[in-house]
Amino acid sequence: MKQTNATSAAGSPVLVTGATGRIGRAVVEQLADEGVPVRALVRRPESAVSLPAGVEVVTGDLTVPESLDAALRGVSAVFLVWTAPPQTAAAVVDRLAAHPRRVVYLSAPHRTPHPFFQQPNPMAALHAEIERLISATGLESTIIRPGMFASNALFWWAASIRDDGTVRWPYGSAETAPIDDRDVTAVVARTLSEDGHAGGDYVLTGPESLTQAEQVRIIGEVLGRPITFEELTPDEFRRRTPEISRPAADMLLAAWNAATGQPAYVTSTVADQLGRPPKTFRQWATDHATAFTGEGSGDRSS
Fold first, then answer.
1. What CA–CA distance (Å, rounded) separates 40 from 54?
2. pLDDT band at 46 (very low <50, low <70, confident <90, very high)
3. Is the pTM of this model over 0.85?
4. Distance between CA atoms of residues 92 and 66, nearest Å
5. For residues 60 and 70, what is the distance between their CA atoms, to the nearest angstrom?
6. With contact defined as beta carbons under 8 Å apart, do 6 and 31 qualify?
7. Rg (CA), the chain
8. CA dihedral over 263, 268, 271, 274, signed as positive or negative
9. Are 81 and 89 a contacting pair, CB within 8 Å?
């Protein structure tokens, strides 16, 4: 495990952007649990009602860079989750450079030498440009690059598993290494609250390469009942995808196609940073089993 010194717990706050999103909210909660002063950036104050007590809430919008000045004043580090169009990225990064000297940026593994991550992808291009902007300012930066999130299984498959126990999906043999969101959160929180991560470039994956069909099978085993995997052709998948989501579907289809026939890219970064193995997909599915049955919130662990 990387030996570092805690710096933020008794000092200036850490600013978390995207503080009500999937990863941002979890980072806010973990830092608060650890006693690290947290400042949560939200666009609408009412969206912050579920954040932990004691967290400082500030309003600001990445599309209005000048709205960030008050939020940035006096912070020790910033967790940047880009949730806006690209037009204001340069102005936002300039403001980061004028205030804190440390930024942790949630990016993607677009530099990873594996076909799954090398397909044309507008989001990857945006991440690369924001990384370039950050580097040009001289900010102390840490880049966090999670691969495929295990929680995608909820968005993709939970409804059909609850409905009729059949997952209709393309490229069942394509392999990924799903990472538990909680492992991403833990690594982000560590890089924000400790020294020693400047220049870090962390590709985060789960511990094992699994085909999509194997992931569905594991969910069935956790639930104690078989789930059928029905292979769709790419065209069938496109026809079932809402038009607004077609660009994202096409990016996924290209990635799965490129990855078919070879193991997923797996790193040891979570273990290196946290001193424990990353959670397996089976662990993740067990902790979220009720989301696939409709019996509860779907998360039995913190």
1. 11
2. confident
3. yes
4. 8
5. 9
6. no
7. 20
8. negative
9. no
